[in-house]
């Protein structure tokens, strides 16, 4: 007998789960046999098929469209510190192989590392934890203990303020859970130094997923005039300057982000090369066009224009518009790096947006390179949603 609540699937709703997916949607549960609405958010549950056979163990939330997220398929494995230790050690072992001597990476990537709802980014001796679901919130004390035992950090910061917590019915907060953590912490990416505002910045303070794409950029920028749009704190622009760009302009709507750009440029001795312009990206690009500005390389790394499937049409139009504005600023034979972190903006759809932008301008574009999220953001083969990042290096004729 189990001590956990039991949720049973409707007939024939177990195929996706048996194929490896970790999510159960609310309309897949037989609520007549096993009422979902009576459970508290984050309750541990055993999942069964319609015949009562065990499928997995995880946590439930009746308020969420994703009603259950599975943590294990082993009926004899309780959800306790041993499970978290196994998952975290496996994730840490992989990262230490990938980033030997450079402990700056995503340590836990949710479903990709078998811990749905949990994100942990590592900044050397500091960890930033994002608990995005009610189930992880309930288990957070155990997770913090295991992180302390396995990673030996100086401090752990919890950033429980992401928009993903809203549909889970969770409060928003930021707090230090262990040791001490300064507001900004150092990191090194592709040999370039940065300080990330982990307490107040976007997400965990940094975006490690584009690491390899920013490394690809280095070969295109020596001697180039570079425009970094949606620059945040200069991940692309400062690295371009460090790689030999003659001039870099970073564009962002956030004054604190641009202050951080200037600081990070100074850390690398390229402050004379990097300039900033604050404003809405669409408006700034339009203004740059009107001023007759042109660039050898333009980088577009926008926030997700499509957060929900129903927003796809409007979002696709936004991607096409921003790509067109960017292409107007690229010199003949120059490079446009265009990307999307929207899962609902598929690879082919993003390429189509770039194609329509180029043909609308009477220009041809060649695809030179294609990138996606780095290996510290592993993709779960049974969960398409874990593959989200696209980046294309285009030569605009």
Detailed description of the structure:
The chain contains nine helices and 19 strands. It is α/β, with parallel strands linked by helices. Strand 11 and strand 12 (192-196) form a beta hairpin. The longest helix is centred in the N-terminal third of the chain and has 18 residues, at 81-98. It has helices spanning 15-18, 81-98, 134-151, 211-217, 235-242, 255-267, 281-290, 312-327, 347-360, and strands at residues 5-8, 23-25, 43-48, 54-60, 66-72, 104-109, 118-123, 126-131, 155-160, 173-179, 185-189, 192-196, 225-229, 247-252, 274-278, 295-300, 330-340, 365-371, 390-396. The protein folds into three domains: 5-72, PUA domain (Archaeosine Trna-guanine Transglycosylase, Chain: A, domain 4, Roll); 81-181, RNA methyltransferase domain (HRMD) like (Transcription Regulator spoIIAA); 207-396, Vaccinia Virus protein VP39 (Rossmann fold, 3-Layer(aba) Sandwich), CATH 3.40.50. It has a seven-stranded mixed sheet, sandwiched between helices. A five-stranded mixed sheet has the order 1-3-4-5-2. A five-stranded mixed sheet has the order 6-7-8-9-10.
């Amino acid at each position: 007998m189990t001590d956990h609540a039991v949720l049973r699937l409707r007939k024939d709703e177990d195929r996706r789960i048996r194929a490896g997916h970790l999510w159960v949607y609310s309309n897949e549960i037989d609520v007549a046999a096993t009422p979902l609405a009576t459970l508290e958010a984050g309750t541990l549950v055993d999942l069964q098929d319609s015949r009562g056979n065990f499928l997995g163990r995880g946590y439930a939330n009746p308020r969420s469209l994703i009603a259950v997220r599975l943590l294990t398929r082993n009926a004899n494995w309780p959800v306790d510190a041993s499970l978290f230790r196994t998952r975290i050690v496996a994730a840490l072992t992989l990262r230490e192989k990938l980033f030997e001597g450079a402990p700056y990476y995503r340590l836990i990537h949710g479903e990709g590392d078998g811990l749905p709802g949990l994100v942990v980014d590592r900044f050397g001796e500091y960890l930033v934890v994002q608990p995005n679901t009610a189930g992880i919130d309930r288990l957070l004390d155990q997770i913090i203990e295991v992180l302390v035992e396995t990673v030996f950090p100086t401090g752990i910061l919890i950033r429980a303020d992401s928009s993903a917590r809203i549909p889970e019915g969770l409060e928003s907060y930021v707090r230090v859970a262990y040791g001490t953590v300064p507001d900004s912490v150092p990191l090194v990416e592709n040999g370039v130094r940065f300080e990330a505002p982990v307490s107040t910045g976007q997400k965990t303070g940094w975006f490690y997923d584009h690491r390899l794409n920013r490394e690809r950029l280095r070969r295109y920028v020596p001697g180039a005039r570079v425009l970094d749009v949606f620059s945040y704190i200069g991940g692309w622009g400062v690295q371009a300057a460090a790689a030999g760009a003659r001039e870099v302009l970073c564009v962002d709507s956030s004054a604190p982000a641009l202050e951080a750009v200037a600081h990070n440029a100074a850390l690398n001795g390229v402050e004379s090369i990097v300039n900033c312009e604050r404003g809405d990206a669409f408006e700034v690009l339009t203004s740059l066009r009107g001023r007759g500005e042109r660039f050898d390389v333009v980088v577009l790394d926008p926030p997700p224009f499509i957060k929900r499937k129903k927003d796809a049409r409007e979002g696709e139009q936004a991607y096409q518009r921003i790509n067109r504005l960017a292409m107007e600023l690229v010199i003949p034979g120059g490079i446009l790096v265009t990307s999307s972190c929207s899962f609902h903006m598929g690879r082919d759809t993003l390429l189509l947006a770039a194609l329509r932008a180029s043909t609308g301008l009477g220009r041809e574009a060649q695809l030179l390179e294609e990138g996606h999220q780095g290996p510290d953001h592993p993709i779960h083969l049974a969960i398409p949603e874990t593959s989200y990042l696209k980046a294309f290096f285009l030569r605009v004729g």
